[in-house]
Amino acid sequence: MTDGVIAEFAVRAVATASIVIFIAWAAVRLGPAIGGILAGLPIILAPGFYFLLHDHTPEFAARAATGSLFSLSATQVFLAAYGASARKGPLAAILFSLLAWSVVALPLSRIPHFPVVGALLFTAVTFGLHSFGRRFLDPAQPKTAGTRWSLLILRGVAAGLLVGIVTLFAPILGSSVSGLLLAFPIGFSVVALSLHLDHGGAVAGRTTHAGLVGVSSLAVFTFVLAITLRELSPAAAFAVALCASLVATALMTGMARHRQRNGSIAS
């Protein structure tokens, strides 16, 4: 392996491990609503597309970004499925969620991909599943235990290694499959399982439900990247997409904190 390949693998692995650890901590410290939104930060997708732009043409990267946008609709199905099955236990919930993701993602990878169609599909799926998922939320305020840092770090490292391996070799499979794999919810899987094992199904369910909103930031990133790569240089398009995604996350986090404060005052 060349030094460039090793650096690429390391960045992707460290980025994934970091976001998994941070989101699991944030969901406990700041609450599931904010933790789920922060999970939408493009800390996993952005490094993947950075190296994709470095190694491939803008056209290839634009197609991969559009493929990721379609795949994010399957991620929403994954999150909704986990929230709906969280009371069944962590193993049943993750298996059901991954099955639901596969049923949706694989057909989506085979249809023609257009950014606007992907954005409309994502918007419709997000609104529908967010409303649907409310009925599965535990009405009681979930209680959280202390963070088990050793286990959390171990899970984060495992997720990082998996993402590093998968995304490093994804371009060999073509732009559509690359986009599909780059958007695979490995990070969400580890976050949901960690929260479920350490703090119970109620916390995991509320975090994955909030994640339905948080993923909008990833959708913004992939949509803006797919569109701007046709008009701007790769570096400029990447910067614009990243800024748009961060702004979206900041706005959603501010709204969630406002709702939390209003809820505290009302109670």
What does this structure look like?
- Helices cover 81% and strands 0% of the residues.
- It is mainly alpha-helical.
- The protein has one domain.
- The longest helix has 33 residues, at 234-266.
- The protein is globular.
- 54% of the residues are buried.
Topology:
Layout: H1 3-29, H2 32-38, H3 45-55, H4 58-85, H5 90-108, H6 115-133, H7 149-169, H8 175-182, H9 186-199, H10 201-228, H11 234-266
Helix pairs in contact: 1-2, 1-7, 1-9, 2-10, 2-11, 3-11, 4-5, 4-6, 4-8, 4-10, 6-10, 7-9, 9-10, 10-11
Shape: globular
Taken together, the total number of domains comes to 1
| Helix-strand makeup class | mainly alpha
Distance between the termini: 58 Å
**What portion of the residues fall into strands of 2 or more residues?**
under 5%
In angstroms, what is the radius of gyration?
A: 18 Å
State the helical fraction: over 70%
Q: What is the count of DSSP helices, taking H or I runs of 4+ residues?
A: 11
Please give the largest β-sheet: none
- Overall mean pLDDT stands at 81
Uncertain segments are none
Total strand count, please? 0
Element pattern in H and E: HHHHHHHHHHH
